[in-house]
Design a protein that fits this description.
Strand order of the largest sheet of chain A: 6-7-8-3-9-10
Distance between the termini of chain A: 31 Å
Strand content of chain B: under 5%
Largest sheet of chain B: none
Oligomer: heterodimer
Distance between the termini of chain B: 23 Å
Largest sheet of chain A: 6 strands, mixed
Structural class of chain A: alpha/beta
Order of helices and strands of chain A: EEEHEEEHHHEHEHEEHEHEEHEH
Shape of chain A: elongated
Number of strands of chain A: 14
Number of strands of chain B: 0
Radius of gyration of chain B: 21 Å
Number of helices of chain B: 12
Helix content of chain B: over 70%
Largest interface: A-B, 34 and 25 residues
Order of helices and strands of chain B: HHHHHHHHHHHH
Chain lengths: 320, 270
C-alpha cells in the first residue's frame, strides 16, 4: 500500500537572533505512515509534535529534509484538496453559525452549492450539532467548538487528516463521541495522523505510534508489537534473606516488603528459574500473573530514558 | 475565488468589531451636530447680518463634517486592519485556512479586500449623512461632495493596506505608530520634494527624495478644500479628470503594497 505520509530527515531549527544560539525543534525525523492507518504521534509538551505537523502542512518551513503527503511534496496546493487539519483549541469566526462556518470552509475547496448543502447537513448530524444550527459560534461550548472543528476538517471528504489533541479539555461524553468518530473514520479507510496526550485513546484507536522527545524520534512501531513485550509478576512469601538476594540478581525488578517479595520479569526462561529458586528456598509461591504493559508505560519509559530537558533547551515558540 | 471567500469572512468580522461601531456612531452624531456648531459659529458674526450667512453656515458644516470623516476614517482604517492577520495567527484560525487549498497571496488579498469593503460601508454612511445634511440646508443634492468622500476613502484603503503589510513585519504598537507617521509624512509629501531641491547636503537630499518616493502623497487625496468653499456646486465639473488620476494613483499604490505584503507573507512562518 502506498505511503500517505513520507518524511525524510526533516529538521527544524530556530535561531535566537537576540541571545544567539540555535534550538532544534525537530531533528532529522524519518517516518512513514501507510494509507488507511491511524497513526499516533506522541511526545511530551515541547517535543516537536506540532512543529512537525505545521511543517507537513506548509505553515512553517523545514530547515532541511523533505516530506510528501499523498505522494506530493509538502506545500503542494493540489494535495491540500485531500487533506484536513484540526489544530489544538482552534478559534473560528464566532459571528457565524455552525452551518455558515462549514459553508465558508466548503467554499475554500471550491465545492458547489449543492455539494456544500449536502455535506453541511450530513456533517452537522455526524458531529451531533443538529440542535445548535441557529446559534452563533460565540454561544458554543468548548465541546461544541471541537465538534464543529472536526466538521470543518471533514467538509472536503479528505483522505488524510491531521488531528492535534482532538479530545483535549472535553467532558467524558464529548471525549467518547470524538473517539468513536475517529474509529468511524478508520472504518471509512481514511488515514489519520493523531497527536494526543490521551494515551488510552491512542492505544485504543491507533494502528501504529511514534514517540518523539526533544525533537528526536525515540521509538516507532505497531501498537500491538510495542505492547507485546509483556512481563510476569511473581509474588512469594517465606523466603530467607540469601534467597531474596539471589532473586534480586535474577529479576528485572523486585520489591521486598514485610516478608512478601514481588518480582517482575519479562524473560520467560528467567521466570522458570525464579520459580525454581523460590521452591528450592522453601518459599511459598502466592501468585504468578502475566502483566500487560500499557502504552503509558512505554511512553514513560521512552521519555525517561533521555535526560530531562534543561530550561534553556525548551522551545520558545511553536510549543506543543 | 478564494480571495473573495476570505474577503467575505473578513468583512463579516470587521463590521462587527466594536471599535468600528463606536467610531461610526460617534461620527454620525458629530456630523449631525455640525449643523448646531455651524449655526452657533455664524450667530453674532458679521456674516449673520448679511445674505452670506447661509453660505457660511453650509461651509462650516462641510468643513466640520469632512474633518470628522478624515479623523474617523484614519482611526478605522488602522484599527480595523492592524490586528487582522496577527489575531488570526494567535487564535490559530489561520491554520485551518492555510491548510486548505488557499494560496498565501489569496489570504492577504482577501483580508485587504474584506477590510476595504468594511471601510467602504462606514465611509459611505458618513458620506450619505453629509450629503443629507447639506441637502436639508441648501435644498440641493451636492453630489460632487461624494467625489471628495471617494478620494478620502481611497486614502483610507491605502492606509489599511499599509497596516496589513506592516502587521507582517512589525509588532502591533509599532504598526499603529508607523501608520500614523505614514499619514502625516504623506500629507507633507510636497515638503520633502522642496527639501530635496533646496538642500545642498547630498545625504539629506537623498533622504528627502526617498521620503517623497517611498511614502504616498496623501495630500493628493484631499480635494475637500475646493468642495467646501465652492459657492455654487454646479460650477465645478464632476467628476473631474483629477479625481480619476488621483484614484488611479491610489489604486496603483494599493497594488504595490499588496504585492509587497504577499511576497513577505509567502515566506512567513505562522
Amino acid at each position: 500500500m502506498a505511503a500517505a505520509i513520507q518524511i525524510r530527515n526533516l529538521t527544524k531549527e530556530y535561531h535566537n537572533v537576540v541571545g544567539g544560539g540555535n534550538f532544534t525543534a525537530v531533528d532529522g525525523l524519518n517516518l512513514t505512515v501507510e494509507t488507511g492507518q491511524i497513526f499516533g504521534f506522541l511526545g511530551p509538551n515541547g517535543a516537536g509534535k506540532t512543529t512537525t505537523i505545521k511543517m507537513l502542512l506548509g505553515l512553517i518551513f523545514p530547515t532541511s529534509g523533505e516530506a510528501s503527503l499523498l505522494g506530493k511534496p509538502i506545500g503542494d496546493i493540489q494535495a491540500k484538496n485531500e487533506i484536513a487539519y484540526l489544530p489544538e483549541s482552534p478559534y473560528f469566526y464566532d459571528y457565524m453559525t455552525g452551518p455558515e462556518l462549514l459553508d465558508f470552509y466548503g467554499r475554500l475547496f471550491g465545492l458547489s452549492e449543492k455539494v456544500r448543502r449536502e455535506r453541511i447537513e450530513e456533517l452537522i448530524d455526524t458531529v451531533g450539532l443538529a440542535h445548535a444550527t441557529g446559534r452563533t459560534l460565540r454561544q458554543y461550548s468548548k465541546g461544541m467548538l471541537q465538534r464543529i472543528g472536526i466538521a470543518q476538517a471533514l467538509i472536503n471528504d479528505p483522505k488524510l487528516l491531521f488531528f492535534d489533541e482532538p479530545t483535549s479539555g472535553l467532558d467524558p461524553v464529548a471525549h467518547i463521541d470524538i473517539r468513536n468518530l475517529i474509529l468511524r473514520l478508520k472504518d471509512q479507510g481514511k488515514t489519520l495522523f493523531l497527536s494526543s496526550h490521551q494515551l488510552s485513546d491512542v492505544e485504543m484507536v491507533c494502528d501504529r505510534v511514534a514517540i518523539i522527545h526533544k525533537g528526536v524520534l525515540r521509538t516507532t512501531g505497531h501498537v500491538s508489537d510495542l505492547l507485546a513485550g509483556s512481563q510476569m509478576c511473581i509474588v512469594a512469601t517465606g523466603l530467607p534473606a540469601d534467597a531474596v538476594a539471589k532473586l534480586r540478581a535474577l529479576a528485572d525488578k523486585m520489591d521486598d516488603e514485610d516478608g512478601q517479595v514481588t518480582i517482575w520479569e519479562s524473560d520467560v526462561n528467567q521466570v522458570d528459574e525464579i520459580v525454581d529458586a523460590i521452591r528450592a528456598a522453601k518459599g511459598r509461591l502466592v501468585s504468578l500473573t502475566p502483566e500487560r504493559r500499557s502504552l503509558e508505560d512505554i511512553f514513560i519509559e521512552t521519555v525517561r530514558e533521555t535526560a530531562p530537558v534543561k530550561p534553556d533547551e525548551r522551545p520558545v515558540a511553536h510549543e506543543d | 475565488m478564494n480571495t473573495w471567500v476570505i474577503a467575505r469572512g473578513t468583512f463579516g468580522e470587521a463590521i462587527r468589531k466594536r471599535i468600528g461601531l463606536y467610531v461610526l456612531f460617534t461620527t454620525l452624531i458629530f456630523i449631525v451636530l455640525s449643523q448646531l456648531f455651524a449655526s452657533l459659529s455664524v450667530q453674532g458674526s458679521i456674516a449673520s447680518k448679511t445674505a452670506q450667512s447661509g453660505n457660511v453656515e453650509v461651509t462650516v458644516i462641510k468643513s466640520m463634517a469632512f474633518g470628522i470623516i478624515v479623523l474617523a476614517g484614519l482611526v478605522l482604517s488602522i484599527f480595523l486592519s492592524f490586528d487582522l492577520i496577527p489575531s488570526d495567527v494567535d487564535k490559530k484560525t489561520i491554520y485551518t485556512i492555510l491548510s486548505k487549498p488557499v494560496w498565501r497571496w489569496q489570504y492577504v488579498l482577501g483580508k485587504f479586500v474584506g477590510t476595504s469593503l468594511a471601510l467602504g460601508v462606514n465611509i459611505a454612511l458618513m458620506g450619505v449623512a453629509l450629503l443629507v445634511l447639506v441637502f436639508l440646508k441648501t435644498g440641493q443634492l451636492e453630489t460632487p461632495l461624494l467625489a471628495g468622500v471617494l478620494l478620502l476613502y481611497l486614502q483610507f484603503v491605502l492606509l489599511a493596506g499599509f497596516s496589513i503589510f506592516l502587521s507582517l513585519v512589525v509588532s502591533r504598537n509599532i504598526n499603529v505608530a508607523v501608520c500614523f507617521a505614514i499619514y502625516i509624512m504623506g500629507m507633507v509629501s510636497e515638503f520633502w520634494q522642496d527639501v530635496a531641491k533646496a538642500t545642498p547636503v547630498p545625504y539629506i537630499q537623498w533622504l528627502a527624495k526617498f521620503m517623497h518616493l517611498a511614502i504616498p502623497n496623501i495630500y493628493n487625496f484631499n480635494v475637500t478644500n475646493s468642495l467646501i468653499h465652492m459657492q455654487n456646486w454646479r460650477e465645478i465639473p464632476s467628476p473631474s479628470q483629477d479625481v480619476f488620476l488621483v484614484a488611479l494613483y491610489g489604486i496603483l499604490w494599493c497594488a504595490v503594497v499588496m504585492v509587497l505584503a504577499s511576497a513577505i507573507f509567502s515566506r512567513k512562518e505562522v
